[in-house]
Amino acid sequence: MRRNLLHIDSLLDGTGFEESPGAMLLEGDSIVQVGTPQSIGTIEDVQITQIHGTVTPSFVNAHAHLDLTVESASSKGMDFMPWVKEVVAPIRMKQTKEDVQKVVERGVQLSKEGGCFTVGDIAGTTEAMRAFQESDLLGVSFLELIGTGDRSESAIERMSDLPEGCGVQPHAPYSCSRDVYEAAFDSNRPLATHLAETLDEVECLKERSGAIVEFAKSIGVWNEDIGHACVHPVDAICDIASRPFLAAHCQYLEEHHYELLCKAGVSVVYCPRASAFFGHRQHPWKTLLERGVNVALGTDSLLCLDTPSRMTVLDDMRYLYEQGGDATTLLNMATVNGARALGLDESHYQFSIGKIAGLNQFEKNENHGFAKVLQSREMPTAVMV
Q: Which of 4, 24, 194, 293 lies in disulfide reach of 172, CB 3.0 to 4.6 Å?
């Protein structure tokens, strides 16, 4: 197996590891030694590669809709329900199988160009799931399910036919019945869901009224008995949960939800720029971290991003850094925390002995450190060894 000794100007990860200069002995895709050039020393029969710049683990985008990687229909923010009706629904109605293949392939390429080689992809169809599995991305593809009332049975049947390793995503508590959620938890597959994303969602579950109910009625899919109690969405799903799961967004929480999410082992995926697109403010991600909840980063779909030429959580880290986020914490959210959220081996996303999921390189700057990376607009390149 090929052995390669990297000498690197600056080597750092999200756990606080930092060596400037740094060195890493690789054997295939595994780290054999890591530290300073002096600590590793001279090794016979090894190729030495000098890398000028900063090297980090590759990033994890824990929540993305690759099958919506189409040209943005709006450069300005929108409210959530009008966006669903005016932007997403027409795309879903017109997409052919060939269209799905092409847009997922584009999503894969834009992810890799942004240093995200691991993705939690929400696939709207089995064709989208297959396209993700045929790519060279790491991660999990979750099949999105929708079903209430007499549509619940077909949603449950869909998850039972999936290949091993595929995840399931009951879309949200307002669009999937309690029966669908219970079957998803019983399946023992990786499980994700949208949760507490909007105030409309909270109103829908608590009061059975509001914009979501009106939209569902307008397309003939509203079922008054969705199976959930008239409570906040977090309470409804945590009451069902029999094992840890991934919850995208969690924008609107009540005080008791922090302990509830922590005890349930829920990983929250925050999509900062998508959240801003829909006009949401003051996401409680810092409080969630302080209360012991695992918080990862995601992009959501390209349709609600301000970067039509790429799809990467690096831009979300930069967005949060400009708002006062700590650089090392943000890197950890985009690597280790993301891997944990997807049920992957988090050691593959930090500089420790063993396999590494990938390496990102940023060009040399006067002062090392990830803060300097976040202050720039540079995109990473993959370290090929």
A: 194
In a domain, 49, yes or no: yes
pTM of the full predicted structure?
Answer: 0.96
pLDDT tens digits along 117-162: 999 999 999 999 999 999 999 999 999 999 998 889 999 999 988 9
Whether cis (ω within 30° of 0) applies to the bond prior to 21 is yes
Judge whether 283 and 229 are in contact, CB under 8 Å: no
Q: What is the pLDDT of residue 197?
A: 97
In whole angstroms, what is the distance from residue 76 CA to residue 329 CA?
29
Residues 129, 246: Cα–Cα separation, whole Å: 18
Contact 58, 358 (CB under 8 A): yes
User: Does residue 241 share a domain with residue 126?
Assistant: yes
**Structural contact between residues 168 and 143, judged by C-beta atoms closer than 8 angstroms:** yes
Tell which residue, 216, 287, 281, 224, has the closest CA to residue 257.
287
For residue 244, give the nearest of 309, 167, 178 by alpha carbon: 167
Is residue 204 within 8 Å of 174, Cβ to Cβ?
yes
Pairing outcome for strands 267-270 and 246-249: parallel
